[in-house]
Amino acid sequence: MSVAKRWLYIAHRWTGIAVCLLMAVWFLSGVVMMYVGYPKLTPLERLEHLPDLSLSESCCISPQQALSAARKALPEISSASEKPARGRVGDGLPALSLVMIGNAPYWLASDGRNRQTAVEAATGKAMDHVDEAHALMVARAFAPESQPSLMEVVRQDIFTVSRGLDHHRPLFRIALNDTNGTELYISSRTGEVIRDSTRLERGWNYLGAILHFFYPLKGEFFDKWRSDIIIYTALVGTVLALLGMWVGVLRWRFKGRFANGSRSPYRNNWTRWHHISGLLFGLITLTWVLSGMLSLNPWRVFESGGPRPDHRAFAGVSLEHARFTLSPGEAVRRANFPVREISVRLFDGHPYYLLRAADGRSEIVAADDSSNANRPIEMIPKDALLAAAARLIPDYTIIRATLLTDYDNYYYGRQPHNLSGHIERRLPVLRVEFDDPHHTWVHLDPHTASIFNSLDSTGRVRRWLFNFLHSFDLRGFVNRRPLWDTTLILLSIGGFVLCISGVVIGWRRLRRPAFTKAAE
């Protein structure tokens, strides 16, 4: 038993020396990320800064013409439409939207996997590149009162590490020269603003997401090993926390006291703080490090073999064969607000135009009906959604359908700066549950006539093991401020003290004369 204890203490000591500093960094950066997220251009920010759509009588080419022009410039759009749909709405399916880029309308065509091209809506000419003058014009349209200037043309920097931006590279980095120190990143492929950041965001991110996600390793030599580095570091941290809790309990005197008058045998303040903080905060440290590791889906533990929703069956018609008789210009004139973006939606065998306003409001109008009786509506009726949903998963039937008018623990919103908080989750939403072996749920958005996401039993387990354990996003608690903030900050301080005291103990251990002499 004494030999086993000895090896237990040694294992805890040396794993602590190896990873305690990184764990302390995770606690510190996690608190920063509660309030300042990694720079992103949210859908609502994008809409807010887009110019109102200004369409002449002769504009625009039809969606099919735009798709044809886009496929010539980006063949992936054609091949992607033949692949099975997976994951979020539109994955593997061509998508079209009409916006003003600078002072002209453009169709934006995407293959559903972040590959995108722009087509002039008036001429049908695909954009092959964007020059500096065009990028500056787009920046002035984004912020009319600014004085933009080009900082650099960059392939990638610390604020644009996402693989989702790869098809837009190189990027124009433009300073707006405003009081907030705003910088824009503009795609050289489509001319869109794809990212914005302020001086405050960039500064805090060096203590936040950049440290938390090891972003300095992105795009460099270590990029292909970055996920493994995080996973195995977190795995060692998990083992360290487990060993530490075990050691802490073994060393704590529950009956009586040691000669120093304490229940902890350690006389040195740092060692005693480490012991006590480990007993108090060891479990939360274990929880956060383990759930952080699970966020990367190590060894595909959250992979599911369950059925995927059939997006084509839900659409009922392909974009090529849809019948468009209502022009985009006429759709804009029928809207009940100034339109910033038109997106094409396919639902139940019919094409629709989704009209978006600057404040995020939306209306949807049938694109195959040019009669005056065809007016925009706010949402697709529940019965129509339910009828289309019955075709989503062949060979299985819907056992329950629920129109959610409030968030719950599986469908809920987060603040935009939070991880995945930029993804818009509107209410109401229709949840349909199937009788397949994986108990698949599908959320349907009546505002956009689209599939928002699917969630099977494995995904629901992941929701608790990662989302809940990592951020305590329990319904009724996450929005109860400042209780949620206070709880997470106090727990983070406890975990930080635990880890930083381990760093000090380890540093002193390594600097001991006996160790130094042995190393020499």
UniProtKB/TrEMBL annotation:
TM regions (residue ranges): 14-38, 229-252, 273-294, 488-507
UniProt KW keywords: Membrane, Transmembrane, Transmembrane helix
Domain of life assignment: Bacteria
InterPro entries assigned to the protein according to its UniProt record, in alphabetical order: PepSY-ass_TM
Listed PANTHER family: BLR3280 PROTEIN, IRON-REGULATED INNER MEMBRANE PROTEIN-RELATED
Protein name: PepSY-associated TM helix domain-containing protein
Organism in which the protein naturally occurs: Sulfuritalea hydrogenivorans sk43H
